[in-house]
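Subject: sequence -> structure tokens, single chain

Hey, anyone have a minute? Need the predicted structure for the following. Not urgent.
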Amino acid sequence: MKPIVYAYSGCGTCQSALKWLASNQLEVEIKPIRETPPSKRELAEALAQYGALKALFNTSGGDYKELGLKDKLADLTEAQALDLLASRGNLVKRPFVSWKGRYLIGFKDPTLWEAFFQ
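Reply:
Had a minute. Here:
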């Protein structure tokens, strides 16, 4: 089963991650995160792995700012936050990778990606 990479074509970080994947000859299934966000189950599993709701949110995105989530996130229940993320792909930090029940969010440190795909 190929890793699933939820990405946005206009995102520079996603483009860098996809270039890294290609340069490492890793075949992935790419899903447009805006139209096809990760499922609530995937998001809940990623939350269990990362341990913080904020890690799942694209805090620099327009939707995050438009909804005023900087001030509201702390007051949301876990279920409310996951529902919001699953319904609005722009809110999910990207790229969001799902593979073998593990998750990788963002692309800052390629060494984390190397370890993830081994």
